[in-house]
Amino acid sequence: MKKSRSRCWRAVVWVSLSLGLLGGLMAGCSSTGYLLQSVRGHVGILQAARPVDDVLADPQSSSKLQERLRLTQQMRDFAVSNLALPDNASYRRYADLGRSAAVWNVVAAPEISLTLTSSCFPVVGCVGYRGFFQREQADAHAQTLRDQGLDVMVYGVPAYSTLGRLPGRYFADPLLNTFINDTPADLAKLIFHELAHQVAFAAGDTVFNESFATAVERLGVQRWLSTQEEASFRRDFERLEQHRAEFRALTMRFRTELEQVFQRSGSDVEKRQRKVQLYADMRAEYRRIKTERWGGYAGYDRWFERANNASLAVLAAYNTQVPAFESLFERCDRDFPRFYAEVRRLAALPKAERDAFLVR
After folding, report:
1. Alpha carbon distance, N-terminus to C-terminus of the chain
2. Whole-structure pTM over 0.70, yes or no?
3. Model confidence over 138-164: pLDDT tens digits?
4. How far is CA 50 from the centre of its chain?
5. Looking at the predicted structure, is the pLDDT value of residue 75 above 60?
6. Residues in contact with 343: Cβ distance below 8 Å, sequence separation at least 6, in sequence order
């Protein structure tokens, strides 16, 4: 497993393109430069994309790439036939971007808070991150946020969704070199996750959207693995899932403790001191788990080195409501079309009503 794939979240950034970004330029709802880089970056990816069949027929394509592309098409067909995910042109093309990430996301949170700062855009509403197609631009934006005293994190995003809103095959989301060499189970999870964003979307509610897509990826990969004869697929998946489960338990426990510290009465000085101690304790416990239970597996080293309020806050967006969605799936008799219909109903409700339903 590549170290870059060991991230705990499945991050996405939505690019509205002609449905919203250009309209946003005229409306002045965000900076012209940022919106233009989003349009140019997305178009650049589309221009690099080629039909999978053409890549398979190209004698210059490596046998490893061809094998992976065939596997993705099997996964893509499975997504339609077994998970009731959209049957469209998404992930039927492939693009080699010549870089390690499709987009770099920037997230930020106040020094004594675990609430992500938000950016608002047409179509998708307010989200807790900004995505950049060039690392240099992401780093520059991150520095402006650090200068404001915020905790900031920059991380590479292997894929993003356009929500299936853009017309025609040309605008469909392609497979990318940034994730094509993931383990088979992780590759399936990513495809299922991104397609889930096309099923239901609540504007401005990152936790709802990401938790739903994460639930679909988890449910979907289990069903996909049950159809695979290659034993190593499940073996690798179970090993890494155990690491991820322990990682989530550890980080969410310390996130809860930090949140309690920030919400208590007391001076900011005291809260900062307790914050420093809790992060030190979290890193120490991670080192113990890594040594005693993971056999030295170092996939999360980079995350813990950089851990701050922003990185803990973004984790919650991808996990907080997952158990609620998994419970809803069970109440729908594990029937994906029924499940999706209920999720779409929830997405149309006011946020307070959605949240109340999912916590009951």
Report:
1. 38
2. yes
3. 999 999 999 999 999 999 999 888 887
4. 24
5. yes
6. 199, 200, 212, 325, 328
